[in-house]
Amino acid sequence: MKSKMLLCFLSLFMAAAGASANERIYVNREVTTHIVMPENIKMVDISTTKIAGNQCTDNIVRIKPSCGSDSIPEAGYRDNELLGTLTLIGERHIAQYDILYTQSPQMAASIFEVPYSHTQSYINPEVTMPMAEMARYAWAVYGSGRKYNQIVSRAHGMKAVVNNIYAVGDYFFIDYSLQNKTKIAYDIEELRVKLTDKKETKATNSQTIELSPVFSLNHVRKFKKSYRNVLVLPKLTFPDEKVLRLEISENQISGRVITLTIEYEDILHADGFDSDILKNAAYYPYYYITYPSQP
């Protein structure tokens, strides 16, 4: 019910804004059409049963004309026949397309990238920062110089350091690096972020809260010498007797584990983000993001 009300509201919003669903996407029964939004998709609506489709990734929807039977040529659809309307609701934008049938497979779109010029913006109270914007901030942090020097950990021939901590809106951007001093490549099995007691006593008295990052810039899992990543966490406060721990473990039975401990004082001294740094950062549309290569 909530989704239907949102769709109805947004459709009325687009109509009031003077937007018409006159942009067209051509489809054919022999071609699967992949539609790529420049931001994460929150909801998809297909107006008729003549179009079959589903959301296959966070920002991609695939569609195809519905075919009653392979024995019916072209599924009975005429050339340029309107099959229905496709509505895509993103984190901050909404787009609508008329889906038309073409009898020529060469004329059908296999990949269709939605430009912002085809969309209308709207305020989504559930999204404080779109993923594309978050990625752009993370890239800017990744390219910035190291400002923190006090958060360092060494274990098993590994060195871990926190380079920077930035506060942007409702999020913390934690920039950290790993250095491998050994000749054995490091395979990252798991990264865990925990809020735990500064002084661990008896297990019955200690309380650990596991946190889930909302974004991680670097998805590389193996490196030989150096590795850098930017994690994004929801902004949080915690008492002075607690610490934030980043625990990186290796993908082996006797794997190496290294931990970075961030004190509450370090969180309090997180830098606000300089707009000039963001201006100088390269812009990567969300669907073109490639992760940093590692030496």
From TrEMBL:
It comes from the Bacteria. Pfam families: DUF4138 (PF13595). This is Conjugative transposon protein TraN. InterPro entries: Conjug_transposon_TraN. It comes from Bacteroides ovatus. Keywords: Signal. Residues 1-21 form the signal peptide.
